[in-house]
């Protein structure tokens, strides 16, 4: 799984605890993430931290040929809507993979970014989760 804007890494660590083989975290201020990984004793074979800008990290992952079953993105509140789903993100998903975008309710009007198909939307208080697949793989997701 790929955790964009990882923060403390809670989501990726939860995925590892539930059987994910590997988690890649992207965070430009990784102090809390580093502490979390150290506390749980996550190994370098099961976790990787890419420090810095999300766009740069995506380019690195694409260049390396990394692919994920799950990409989770929780961009900072107030991010411009055209930057919520990076254009290259579809290239990071394995067939049938899922991109989950967490946004703040005021930005919740966003429903289906260009090139993506909305599989499901879940609202939890102020948080909105959009479950997306690239348009070309729309029918491979088990929802």
Q: Care to describe what's here?
A:
With 143 residues, the protein is an alpha/beta fold. It has a single domain, classed as Vaccinia Virus protein VP39 (Rossmann fold, 3-Layer(aba) Sandwich). It is built from three helices and seven strands, in the order βαβαβαββββ. It has a seven-stranded mixed sheet with strand order 3-2-1-4-5-7-6, covered by helices on one side. The two termini are 18 Å apart.
Features:
about 140 residues, alpha/beta, Rossmann fold, seven-stranded mixed β-sheet, 3 helices, 7 strands, globular, disordered C terminus
Q: Which helices and strands, and how do they pair?
A:
Blueprint: E1 2-4, H1 10-17, E2 23-27, H2 31-40, E3 47-51, H3 54-64, E4 68-73, E5 93-104, E6 116-124, E7 127-134
Percent of sequence in beta strands: 25-35%
Order of neighbouring strands in the sheet with most strands: 3-2-1-4-5-7-6
Order of helices and strands: EHEHEHEEEE
Mind telling me which CATH architecture this is?
A: 3-Layer(aba) Sandwich
Helix content: 10-25%
What's this model, at a glance?
The chain is of the alpha/beta class and 143 residues long. The protein has helices spanning 10-17, 31-40, 54-64, and strands spanning 2-4, 23-27, 47-51, 68-73, 93-104, 116-124, 127-134.
